[in-house]
Amino acid sequence: MKGPLVLGIETSCDETSAALLRDEEELLAHLILSQDVHQVYGGVVPELAARAHLRVLDDVVDRVCAQAGVKLADVDAVAVTAGPGLIGALLVGVSWAKAVTFALDRPLVGVHHMEAHLFGPVLENGEAVPPFVALLVSGGHTLLLHAERWGEYRILGQTRDDAAGEAFDKVAKLLGLPYPGGPAVERLARDGDPSRHPLPRPMLKGGGRASDPEYFDFSFSGLKTAVAGRAEELRADGTLEAERAHLAAAFQEAVVDVLVAKTRRAVEVTGCRRVLLGGGVSANGPLRQGMEEEMGAEGRVFRASPRLSLDNGAMVARAGAFRLRNGETSGLDLAADANLPFPGLVP
Ligand code: KG4
Ligand code: ZN
Fold this sequence. Notes:
The chain has helices at about 45-70, 85-105, 115-120, 165-175, 180-190, 220-235, 240-270, 285-295, 305-310, 315-325; strands at about 5-10, 15-20, 25-35, 75-85, 110, 130-135, 140-150, 150-160, 275-280, 300-305. The chain has about 350 residues and is of the alpha/beta class. It folds into 2 domains: about 5-120 and about 310-325, ATPase, nucleotide binding domain (Nucleotidyltransferase, domain 5, 2-Layer Sandwich), CATH 3.30.420.40; about 130-305, ATPase, nucleotide binding domain (Nucleotidyltransferase, domain 5, 2-Layer Sandwich). The protein is globular, with a radius of gyration of 20 Å. The model has no long low-confidence stretch (mean pLDDT about 95). The structure holds 5'-O-[(R)-(carboxyoxy)(hydroxy)phosphoryl]adenosine (KG4) and zinc ion. Zinc ion (ZN) binds near residues 117, 138, 279, 280 and 311.
């Protein structure tokens, strides 16, 4: 007998996405609509994001159903991102999912957006399962955690200020690049020499022992300020244009160095040599390469293709299917929560 058909809905930020997943692994259809209304503002405008989700969500779902050749009534459960994210944007997806599951009398499963990012790689590689050390790097979060099994997570470190993706976006803005900044910085950095503008590696020095509070944590706002200062000097010299690629490369190298070094520490402390990269920043080529080099032949690095690393409904369907199998469904009182805490934390 075939396993359940789960519809996954993602509306936490500026992507409206839906996916149909059969039996936890067979992706029947998947659509991601990136909102372009934000581009002229250089960042996501929450109110515009919510309105855009509202306008297109019905159509996005209709199209994945058509692609998969199923009707909405064939769906066995609906999984939806309940948080964290932009509250207005989340509310659109959560309200839609509640209405549909109520009307069809099907289970509703609220999903944590960052836990869903952990489920991106396994959609393409069945071996990308716990135990692993995971580095989750997105526009809103930077988390280092250890998972012995799905649903049980020990957080080792997180950012104390800006998220890694946020730093990419802010540096892109400083360098006159479009939003989202990560891919634009990566592209520009290809022509740059990172050694021309030495930048700090925040929170790497000093933290020599796992018991030190800084050992696993991240901080990117000082690095962004260092880039801003350097850009200002170069602008004053009239050389910013010529040095932009070098500065982008120096920034990217600093971020990658820190992310790789902290993940290495997590591997050493946990003894787990399987590393999973998740979240939008894991689409970054040098980060993936740096991590693979660092882990060497004895380790494994799992990462999804960019489509499944950036925000998408397939990972939400997959995380929801896991919860559904455990009998963990949500009631109609499921609330969108901009600051939803990470589920299943163990000390
Ligand atoms: O996971 P995601 O799609 O959305 C959130 O949950 O936040 O991550 C988006 C973030 C943005 O900050 C974007 O600039 C960054 O991921 N990003 C990248 C790359 N592609 C996306 N950062 C560095 N290099 C990339 N290639
Ligand atoms: Zn995300």
